[in-house]
Amino acid sequence: GFDIRAYRDAAEQRAYTRTQTPGPASQDGPDVQQAVTQAIAGLSERKVQFTYTDVLARTVGILPPEAGVIERARAGIDEAISREQLIPLDREKGMFTSGIHVLDELSVRALSRDIMKQNRVTVHPEKSVPRTAGYSDAVSVLAQDRPSLAIVSGQGGAAGQRERVAELAMMAREQGREVQIIAADRRSQMNLKQDERLSGELITGRRQLQEGMAFTPGSTVIVDQGEKLSLKETLTLLDGAARHNVQVLITDSGQRTGTGSALMAMKYAGVNTYRWQGGEQRPATIISEPDRNVRYDRLAGDFAASVKAGEESVAQVSGVREQAILTQAIRSELKTQGVLGHPEVTMTALSPVWLDSRSRYLRDMYRPGMVMEQWNPETRSHDRYVIDRVTAQSHSLTLRDAQGETQVVRISSLDSSWSLFRPEKMPVADGERLRVTGKIPGLRVSGGDRLQVASVSEDAMTVVVPGR
Protein backbone atom coordinates (compact mmCIF):
# COMPACT_ATOMS: atom_id res chain seq x y z
CA GLY A 1 0.00 0.00 0.00
CA PHE A 2 0.93 3.66 -0.10
CA ASP A 3 3.24 4.78 2.71
CA ILE A 4 2.70 8.52 3.27
CA ARG A 5 5.68 8.85 5.61
CA ALA A 6 8.04 7.27 3.08
CA TYR A 7 6.64 9.55 0.37
CA ARG A 8 7.23 12.66 2.50
CA ASP A 9 10.74 11.50 3.44
CA ALA A 10 11.62 10.99 -0.22
CA ALA A 11 10.26 14.43 -1.12
CA GLU A 12 12.25 16.07 1.67
CA GLN A 13 15.38 14.22 0.58
CA ARG A 14 14.96 15.46 -3.01
CA ALA A 15 14.54 19.02 -1.76
CA TYR A 16 17.63 18.67 0.47
CA THR A 17 19.70 17.28 -2.41
CA ARG A 18 18.74 20.20 -4.67
CA THR A 19 19.76 22.74 -2.03
CA GLN A 20 23.09 21.00 -1.41
CA THR A 21 23.95 20.45 -5.09
CA PRO A 22 22.33 23.28 -6.98
CA GLY A 23 22.37 23.29 -10.75
CA PRO A 24 23.83 26.07 -12.83
CA ALA A 25 22.56 29.52 -11.98
CA SER A 26 19.43 30.37 -13.93
CA GLN A 27 19.17 33.66 -15.69
CA ASP A 28 15.53 33.75 -14.63
CA GLY A 29 16.51 34.81 -11.14
CA PRO A 30 14.72 33.89 -7.92
CA ASP A 31 11.76 36.19 -8.57
CA VAL A 32 10.52 34.03 -11.44
CA GLN A 33 10.49 30.81 -9.42
CA GLN A 34 8.78 32.59 -6.55
CA ALA A 35 6.15 33.94 -8.95
CA VAL A 36 5.57 30.47 -10.46
CA THR A 37 5.24 28.98 -6.97
CA GLN A 38 2.71 31.67 -5.98
CA ALA A 39 0.79 31.11 -9.22
CA ILE A 40 0.59 27.34 -8.67
CA ALA A 41 -0.40 27.74 -5.03
CA GLY A 42 -3.11 30.27 -5.91
CA LEU A 43 -4.56 28.08 -8.65
CA SER A 44 -4.39 24.99 -6.42
CA GLU A 45 -6.59 26.67 -3.82
CA ARG A 46 -9.41 27.01 -6.37
CA LYS A 47 -8.91 24.23 -8.92
CA VAL A 48 -7.75 20.63 -9.05
CA GLN A 49 -6.81 20.92 -12.71
CA PHE A 50 -5.62 23.95 -14.65
CA THR A 51 -4.11 24.70 -18.03
CA TYR A 52 -0.64 25.82 -19.02
CA THR A 53 -2.21 29.14 -20.03
CA ASP A 54 -3.67 29.55 -16.51
CA VAL A 55 -0.24 29.14 -14.93
CA LEU A 56 1.45 31.40 -17.49
CA ALA A 57 -1.13 34.19 -17.18
CA ARG A 58 -1.04 34.14 -13.39
CA THR A 59 2.77 34.11 -13.32
CA VAL A 60 3.03 37.02 -15.75
CA GLY A 61 0.44 38.89 -13.67
CA ILE A 62 2.72 38.65 -10.64
CA LEU A 63 5.98 39.61 -12.40
CA PRO A 64 6.85 43.19 -13.42
CA PRO A 65 6.03 43.75 -17.13
CA GLU A 66 9.59 43.86 -18.42
CA ALA A 67 10.97 42.84 -21.80
CA GLY A 68 11.16 39.05 -22.11
CA VAL A 69 8.85 38.42 -19.14
CA ILE A 70 6.84 35.75 -21.00
CA GLU A 71 9.98 33.81 -21.95
CA ARG A 72 11.21 33.99 -18.35
CA ALA A 73 7.83 32.81 -17.08
CA ARG A 74 7.83 29.88 -19.53
CA ALA A 75 11.31 28.87 -18.39
CA GLY A 76 10.16 29.02 -14.77
CA ILE A 77 7.15 26.83 -15.55
CA ASP A 78 9.39 24.30 -17.33
CA GLU A 79 11.58 24.15 -14.23
CA ALA A 80 8.49 23.63 -12.04
CA ILE A 81 7.50 20.69 -14.27
CA SER A 82 10.97 19.17 -14.03
CA ARG A 83 10.88 19.19 -10.21
CA GLU A 84 7.29 17.81 -10.12
CA GLN A 85 5.80 20.97 -8.71
CA LEU A 86 3.52 20.82 -11.76
CA ILE A 87 2.33 17.40 -12.92
CA PRO A 88 1.13 17.07 -16.56
CA LEU A 89 -2.15 15.22 -17.06
CA ASP A 90 -1.79 14.78 -20.82
CA ARG A 91 0.97 14.03 -23.30
CA GLU A 92 0.91 17.55 -24.78
CA LYS A 93 1.43 19.11 -21.32
CA GLY A 94 -1.55 21.39 -21.72
CA MET A 95 -3.44 20.32 -18.57
CA PHE A 96 -1.85 20.07 -15.12
CA THR A 97 -2.46 19.35 -11.50
CA SER A 98 -0.06 20.35 -8.77
CA GLY A 99 2.23 18.26 -6.62
CA ILE A 100 0.46 19.93 -3.69
CA HIS A 101 -2.85 18.31 -4.69
CA VAL A 102 -1.36 14.88 -5.28
CA LEU A 103 0.38 14.85 -1.90
CA ASP A 104 -2.67 16.23 -0.07
CA GLU A 105 -5.00 13.68 -1.66
CA LEU A 106 -2.69 10.79 -0.83
CA SER A 107 -2.33 12.13 2.71
CA VAL A 108 -6.12 12.29 3.16
CA ARG A 109 -6.44 8.68 2.04
CA ALA A 110 -3.60 7.51 4.29
CA LEU A 111 -4.89 9.38 7.36
CA SER A 112 -8.43 8.09 6.74
CA ARG A 113 -7.15 4.50 6.75
CA ASP A 114 -5.08 5.15 9.89
CA ILE A 115 -8.10 6.53 11.76
CA MET A 116 -10.35 3.62 10.76
CA LYS A 117 -7.67 1.15 11.83
CA GLN A 118 -6.40 2.74 15.06
CA ASN A 119 -9.10 5.00 16.57
CA ARG A 120 -11.59 3.50 19.00
CA VAL A 121 -15.02 4.98 19.73
CA THR A 122 -15.82 4.38 23.39
CA VAL A 123 -19.08 4.56 25.32
CA HIS A 124 -19.24 6.18 28.78
CA PRO A 125 -22.55 5.20 30.45
CA GLU A 126 -21.82 7.40 33.48
CA LYS A 127 -21.78 10.50 31.23
CA SER A 128 -24.73 9.48 29.07
CA VAL A 129 -27.42 12.08 28.30
CA PRO A 130 -30.77 10.40 27.49
CA ARG A 131 -32.08 11.12 24.02
CA THR A 132 -35.20 13.22 23.66
CA ALA A 133 -36.44 11.72 20.39
CA GLY A 134 -36.05 8.68 18.19
CA TYR A 135 -33.25 8.28 15.67
CA SER A 136 -33.55 8.12 11.92
CA ASP A 137 -32.49 4.86 10.25
CA ALA A 138 -29.01 6.15 9.36
CA VAL A 139 -28.26 7.40 12.88
CA SER A 140 -29.61 4.18 14.42
CA VAL A 141 -27.08 2.21 12.36
CA LEU A 142 -24.35 4.72 13.27
CA ALA A 143 -25.10 4.27 16.97
CA GLN A 144 -24.61 0.51 16.60
CA ASP A 145 -21.56 0.58 14.31
CA ARG A 146 -19.75 3.37 16.20
CA PRO A 147 -17.37 4.08 13.26
CA SER A 148 -14.33 6.21 13.98
CA LEU A 149 -14.80 8.00 10.65
CA ALA A 150 -18.02 8.21 8.62
CA ILE A 151 -19.83 10.32 6.03
CA VAL A 152 -23.54 11.04 6.57
CA SER A 153 -25.12 12.14 3.30
CA GLY A 154 -28.55 13.64 2.72
CA GLN A 155 -30.27 16.45 0.87
CA GLY A 156 -32.07 19.31 2.57
CA GLY A 157 -31.99 23.02 3.22
CA ALA A 158 -30.97 24.84 6.38
CA ALA A 159 -33.63 23.07 8.48
CA GLY A 160 -32.54 19.65 7.24
CA GLN A 161 -28.88 20.38 7.92
CA ARG A 162 -29.72 21.58 11.42
CA GLU A 163 -31.83 18.47 12.09
CA ARG A 164 -29.05 16.17 10.87
CA VAL A 165 -26.37 17.78 13.05
CA ALA A 166 -28.66 17.87 16.10
CA GLU A 167 -29.46 14.16 15.73
CA LEU A 168 -25.77 13.23 15.45
CA ALA A 169 -24.96 15.34 18.52
CA MET A 170 -27.77 13.66 20.48
CA MET A 171 -26.39 10.23 19.56
CA ALA A 172 -22.86 11.14 20.71
CA ARG A 173 -24.19 12.60 23.97
CA GLU A 174 -26.24 9.46 24.65
CA GLN A 175 -23.02 7.45 24.37
CA GLY A 176 -21.31 9.79 26.85
CA ARG A 177 -18.92 11.64 24.55
CA GLU A 178 -18.15 15.35 24.32
CA VAL A 179 -19.25 17.02 21.08
CA GLN A 180 -17.56 19.62 18.89
CA ILE A 181 -19.35 20.98 15.82
CA ILE A 182 -17.63 22.63 12.84
CA ALA A 183 -19.96 24.81 10.74
CA ALA A 184 -19.36 25.39 7.04
CA ASP A 185 -19.48 29.19 7.32
CA ARG A 186 -20.75 32.01 9.52
CA ARG A 187 -24.29 31.73 8.17
CA SER A 188 -24.41 28.00 8.91
CA GLN A 189 -22.93 28.65 12.35
CA MET A 190 -25.76 31.08 13.16
CA ASN A 191 -28.30 28.62 11.73
CA LEU A 192 -27.07 25.80 13.98
CA LYS A 193 -27.05 28.02 17.08
CA GLN A 194 -30.77 28.69 16.58
CA ASP A 195 -31.56 25.07 17.46
CA GLU A 196 -32.31 24.65 21.18
CA ARG A 197 -30.92 21.11 21.09
CA LEU A 198 -27.50 22.55 20.20
CA SER A 199 -27.60 25.51 22.60
CA GLY A 200 -24.98 24.00 24.91
CA GLU A 201 -22.65 22.68 22.22
CA LEU A 202 -19.35 24.15 21.07
CA ILE A 203 -19.94 25.35 17.49
CA THR A 204 -16.98 26.79 15.59
CA GLY A 205 -16.41 27.81 11.99
CA ARG A 206 -14.24 26.15 9.36
CA ARG A 207 -11.66 28.89 9.87
CA GLN A 208 -10.79 27.27 13.19
CA LEU A 209 -9.17 24.42 11.23
CA GLN A 210 -6.76 26.90 9.66
CA GLU A 211 -6.00 28.74 12.90
CA GLY A 212 -5.31 25.64 15.00
CA MET A 213 -8.26 23.76 16.45
CA ALA A 214 -8.05 22.19 19.91
CA PHE A 215 -9.41 18.63 19.90
CA THR A 216 -10.90 17.03 23.02
CA PRO A 217 -9.51 13.47 23.35
CA GLY A 218 -12.16 10.78 22.95
CA SER A 219 -14.81 13.22 21.72
CA THR A 220 -16.97 13.33 18.60
CA VAL A 221 -16.42 16.03 15.98
CA ILE A 222 -19.39 16.71 13.68
CA VAL A 223 -18.66 18.60 10.46
CA ASP A 224 -21.61 20.41 8.89
CA GLN A 225 -21.63 20.49 5.06
CA GLY A 226 -18.33 18.63 4.90
CA GLU A 227 -18.39 18.66 1.09
CA LYS A 228 -17.11 22.26 1.32
CA LEU A 229 -13.91 21.23 3.10
CA SER A 230 -10.73 21.78 1.13
CA LEU A 231 -8.01 19.15 1.13
CA LYS A 232 -5.87 21.30 3.47
CA GLU A 233 -8.71 21.71 5.97
CA THR A 234 -9.49 17.99 5.80
CA LEU A 235 -5.85 17.14 6.51
CA THR A 236 -5.87 19.35 9.62
CA LEU A 237 -9.12 17.72 10.77
CA LEU A 238 -7.95 14.14 10.22
CA ASP A 239 -4.51 14.76 11.70
CA GLY A 240 -6.05 16.14 14.91
CA ALA A 241 -8.55 13.27 15.04
CA ALA A 242 -5.80 10.66 14.63
CA ARG A 243 -3.65 12.17 17.39
CA HIS A 244 -6.49 12.56 19.91
CA ASN A 245 -8.58 9.43 19.17
CA VAL A 246 -11.55 11.53 18.02
CA GLN A 247 -14.61 10.20 16.19
CA VAL A 248 -15.29 12.25 13.05
CA LEU A 249 -18.78 12.38 11.51
CA ILE A 250 -18.92 14.43 8.30
CA THR A 251 -22.26 15.43 6.83
CA ASP A 252 -22.58 15.72 3.05
CA SER A 253 -25.50 17.86 1.86
CA GLY A 254 -24.55 17.53 -1.80
CA GLN A 255 -23.83 21.21 -2.39
CA ARG A 256 -20.82 22.82 -4.10
CA THR A 257 -17.67 20.94 -3.17
CA GLY A 258 -14.44 22.43 -1.90
CA THR A 259 -11.27 22.33 -3.94
CA GLY A 260 -10.09 18.76 -4.40
CA SER A 261 -13.29 17.05 -3.25
CA ALA A 262 -11.87 15.71 0.00
CA LEU A 263 -14.90 13.48 0.62
CA MET A 264 -14.22 11.62 -2.62
CA ALA A 265 -10.66 10.92 -1.48
CA MET A 266 -12.04 9.59 1.82
CA LYS A 267 -14.51 7.34 0.01
CA TYR A 268 -11.66 5.93 -2.08
CA ALA A 269 -9.93 5.10 1.21
CA GLY A 270 -12.93 2.98 2.25
CA VAL A 271 -14.83 5.39 4.52
CA ASN A 272 -18.48 4.28 4.76
CA THR A 273 -21.37 6.54 3.76
CA TYR A 274 -24.66 6.50 5.70
CA ARG A 275 -27.74 7.81 3.90
CA TRP A 276 -29.76 10.18 6.12
CA GLN A 277 -33.42 10.66 5.13
CA GLY A 278 -34.84 12.37 8.19
CA GLY A 279 -36.14 15.91 8.54
CA GLU A 280 -38.97 17.62 6.74
CA GLN A 281 -39.22 16.70 3.06
CA ARG A 282 -39.98 19.64 0.80
CA PRO A 283 -42.23 19.09 -2.22
CA ALA A 284 -40.72 19.82 -5.63
CA THR A 285 -42.55 20.58 -8.87
CA ILE A 286 -40.86 20.10 -12.24
CA ILE A 287 -42.28 22.10 -15.13
CA SER A 288 -41.10 21.19 -18.63
CA GLU A 289 -41.34 24.19 -20.96
CA PRO A 290 -39.05 24.62 -23.99
CA ASP A 291 -39.75 28.36 -24.41
CA ARG A 292 -37.42 30.30 -22.13
CA ASN A 293 -39.64 33.39 -21.95
CA VAL A 294 -42.63 31.30 -20.85
CA ARG A 295 -40.47 29.53 -18.24
CA TYR A 296 -39.15 32.79 -16.84
CA ASP A 297 -42.61 34.39 -16.77
CA ARG A 298 -43.97 31.40 -14.83
CA LEU A 299 -41.03 31.49 -12.41
CA ALA A 300 -41.41 35.26 -11.97
CA GLY A 301 -45.11 34.85 -11.19
CA ASP A 302 -44.46 32.13 -8.60
CA PHE A 303 -41.64 34.14 -7.05
CA ALA A 304 -43.75 37.30 -6.79
CA ALA A 305 -46.61 35.35 -5.21
CA SER A 306 -44.29 33.86 -2.57
CA VAL A 307 -42.81 37.28 -1.76
CA LYS A 308 -46.28 38.77 -1.45
CA ALA A 309 -47.16 35.96 0.97
CA GLY A 310 -44.18 36.92 3.15
CA GLU A 311 -42.04 33.89 2.33
CA GLU A 312 -38.26 33.91 1.97
CA SER A 313 -37.62 32.90 -1.64
CA VAL A 314 -34.64 32.65 -3.96
CA ALA A 315 -34.71 32.44 -7.76
CA GLN A 316 -31.67 30.84 -9.34
CA VAL A 317 -30.39 30.51 -12.90
CA SER A 318 -26.91 29.99 -14.35
CA GLY A 319 -25.04 32.66 -16.32
CA VAL A 320 -24.76 36.43 -15.88
CA ARG A 321 -26.85 37.16 -18.99
CA GLU A 322 -29.63 34.77 -17.95
CA GLN A 323 -29.61 36.18 -14.42
CA ALA A 324 -30.14 39.70 -15.80
CA ILE A 325 -33.06 38.54 -17.98
CA LEU A 326 -34.71 36.65 -15.11
CA THR A 327 -34.19 39.55 -12.70
CA GLN A 328 -35.90 41.92 -15.13
CA ALA A 329 -38.84 39.51 -15.50
CA ILE A 330 -39.19 39.19 -11.72
CA ARG A 331 -39.02 42.96 -11.13
CA SER A 332 -41.67 43.52 -13.78
CA GLU A 333 -43.96 40.95 -12.13
CA LEU A 334 -43.35 42.40 -8.65
CA LYS A 335 -44.44 45.81 -9.95
CA THR A 336 -47.53 44.31 -11.59
CA GLN A 337 -48.57 42.71 -8.29
CA GLY A 338 -47.88 45.92 -6.35
CA VAL A 339 -44.95 44.59 -4.32
CA LEU A 340 -42.59 47.18 -5.84
CA GLY A 341 -43.37 50.81 -6.61
CA HIS A 342 -43.22 51.92 -10.22
CA PRO A 343 -40.77 54.86 -10.05
CA GLU A 344 -37.21 53.55 -9.90
CA VAL A 345 -34.04 55.29 -8.83
CA THR A 346 -30.68 54.07 -10.08
CA MET A 347 -28.14 53.85 -7.26
CA THR A 348 -24.49 52.87 -7.06
CA ALA A 349 -23.83 49.88 -4.81
CA LEU A 350 -20.54 48.30 -3.83
CA SER A 351 -20.16 44.56 -4.35
CA PRO A 352 -17.30 42.96 -2.39
CA VAL A 353 -14.54 41.30 -4.38
CA TRP A 354 -13.10 38.28 -2.58
CA LEU A 355 -9.36 38.59 -1.93
CA ASP A 356 -7.28 35.91 -0.24
CA SER A 357 -3.61 35.77 0.69
CA ARG A 358 -2.69 34.96 -2.90
CA SER A 359 -5.16 36.74 -5.16
CA ARG A 360 -4.63 40.14 -3.51
CA TYR A 361 -1.16 40.31 -5.08
CA LEU A 362 -2.46 39.79 -8.64
CA ARG A 363 -2.47 42.99 -10.67
CA ASP A 364 -5.43 41.78 -12.76
CA MET A 365 -7.71 41.92 -9.70
CA TYR A 366 -7.64 45.73 -9.71
CA ARG A 367 -9.26 48.16 -12.16
CA PRO A 368 -9.53 51.98 -12.21
CA GLY A 369 -12.79 53.05 -10.58
CA MET A 370 -12.90 50.19 -8.08
CA VAL A 371 -13.15 51.08 -4.39
CA MET A 372 -10.71 50.03 -1.68
CA GLU A 373 -11.04 50.31 2.09
CA GLN A 374 -8.35 49.97 4.74
CA TRP A 375 -9.09 49.28 8.39
CA ASN A 376 -7.59 51.97 10.64
CA PRO A 377 -7.05 50.50 14.14
CA GLU A 378 -6.43 53.93 15.68
CA THR A 379 -9.76 55.43 14.65
CA ARG A 380 -11.47 52.01 14.52
CA SER A 381 -12.94 52.85 11.14
CA HIS A 382 -12.34 52.19 7.45
CA ASP A 383 -10.53 54.67 5.23
CA ARG A 384 -12.03 54.62 1.74
CA TYR A 385 -10.21 55.19 -1.54
CA VAL A 386 -10.95 54.97 -5.26
CA ILE A 387 -8.41 53.35 -7.57
CA ASP A 388 -7.28 56.12 -9.90
CA ARG A 389 -4.66 54.17 -11.84
CA VAL A 390 -3.10 50.70 -12.02
CA THR A 391 0.58 50.95 -13.02
CA ALA A 392 1.99 47.73 -14.46
CA GLN A 393 5.62 48.87 -14.58
CA SER A 394 5.86 49.47 -10.83
CA HIS A 395 3.17 46.90 -9.88
CA SER A 396 1.37 49.61 -7.92
CA LEU A 397 -1.97 51.36 -7.42
CA THR A 398 -2.66 55.09 -7.32
CA LEU A 399 -5.43 55.68 -4.76
CA ARG A 400 -7.55 58.82 -4.37
CA ASP A 401 -9.28 59.67 -1.08
CA ALA A 402 -12.45 61.69 -0.46
CA GLN A 403 -10.47 64.96 -0.41
CA GLY A 404 -8.93 64.26 -3.80
CA GLU A 405 -5.46 63.53 -2.39
CA THR A 406 -3.60 60.68 -4.08
CA GLN A 407 -1.08 58.15 -2.85
CA VAL A 408 0.80 55.29 -4.49
CA VAL A 409 0.60 51.83 -2.89
CA ARG A 410 2.59 48.84 -4.09
CA ILE A 411 0.39 45.80 -4.63
CA SER A 412 2.97 43.61 -2.87
CA SER A 413 2.44 45.65 0.34
CA LEU A 414 -1.33 45.00 0.57
CA ASP A 415 -2.40 42.89 3.54
CA SER A 416 -5.63 41.63 5.11
CA SER A 417 -6.53 45.13 6.37
CA TRP A 418 -7.48 46.04 2.79
CA SER A 419 -10.85 45.25 1.17
CA LEU A 420 -11.82 45.60 -2.48
CA PHE A 421 -15.22 46.51 -3.92
CA ARG A 422 -16.67 46.74 -7.41
CA PRO A 423 -19.15 49.61 -7.98
CA GLU A 424 -22.35 48.53 -9.73
CA LYS A 425 -25.48 50.37 -10.82
CA MET A 426 -28.74 48.94 -9.50
CA PRO A 427 -32.40 50.03 -9.73
CA VAL A 428 -34.21 50.58 -6.42
CA ALA A 429 -37.95 51.10 -5.88
CA ASP A 430 -40.33 51.38 -2.93
CA GLY A 431 -40.78 47.95 -1.32
CA GLU A 432 -37.38 46.70 -2.48
CA ARG A 433 -35.65 44.05 -0.36
CA LEU A 434 -31.91 44.64 0.03
CA ARG A 435 -29.10 42.78 1.73
CA VAL A 436 -26.14 44.58 3.29
CA THR A 437 -22.79 43.19 2.08
CA GLY A 438 -20.55 45.41 4.22
CA LYS A 439 -20.53 47.97 7.01
CA ILE A 440 -22.10 51.30 6.01
CA PRO A 441 -20.57 54.35 7.75
CA GLY A 442 -23.10 56.17 9.91
CA LEU A 443 -25.67 53.36 9.93
CA ARG A 444 -26.22 50.69 12.57
CA VAL A 445 -26.27 47.83 10.12
CA SER A 446 -23.70 45.16 9.37
CA GLY A 447 -22.97 42.64 6.63
CA GLY A 448 -25.78 40.12 6.15
CA ASP A 449 -28.58 42.36 7.47
CA ARG A 450 -31.76 42.58 5.39
CA LEU A 451 -33.38 45.93 4.65
CA GLN A 452 -36.83 46.87 3.36
CA VAL A 453 -37.06 50.10 1.34
CA ALA A 454 -39.90 52.25 2.70
CA SER A 455 -39.38 55.11 0.24
CA VAL A 456 -36.74 56.23 -2.23
CA SER A 457 -36.08 59.42 -4.16
CA GLU A 458 -33.19 61.00 -6.05
CA ASP A 459 -31.94 62.54 -2.79
CA ALA A 460 -32.60 59.98 -0.06
CA MET A 461 -33.70 56.44 0.75
CA THR A 462 -35.63 55.39 3.85
CA VAL A 463 -35.20 51.78 4.92
CA VAL A 464 -36.67 49.56 7.61
CA VAL A 465 -34.58 46.94 9.38
CA PRO A 466 -36.88 43.98 10.21
CA GLY A 467 -36.95 43.27 13.92
CA ARG A 468 -35.89 46.78 14.99
TrEMBL record:
Chain ranges of the TraI N-terminal subdomain domain: 291-342
**What is the superkingdom listed in this entry's lineage?**
Bacteria
Keywords, ordered alphabetically: ATP-binding, Helicase, Hydrolase, Nucleotide-binding
Signal peptide positions on this chain: none
UniProt keyword ATP-binding, yes or no: yes
Q: What are the TraI 2B/2B-like domain coordinates in residue numbering?
A: 349-428
Matching entries from InterPro entries are given as: TraI_2B (IPR040668), TraI_hel_assoc_DBD_N (IPR054558), TraI_N (IPR040987)
- The keyword ATP-binding is assigned to this record: yes
Q: What sequence ranges are listed for the domain TraI helicase-associated ssDBD N-terminal?
A: 154-252
Name a GO molecular-function annotation: helicase activity
Query: This protein is called what?
Result: Conjugative transfer relaxase/helicase TraI
